[in-house]
Amino acid sequence: MPIRNLIRYSEIMFARRLSVERIDTAGDRHPCPIRWIDNFAMRNFTNDAIFDDTLPAGDGLLEAGYRVPLERLQPAMEDWFRRKGYLKPGERLEIAEIPR
Question: In this structure, are strands 92-98 and 16-23 parallel, antiparallel, or unpaired?
Answer without folding.
Answer: antiparallel
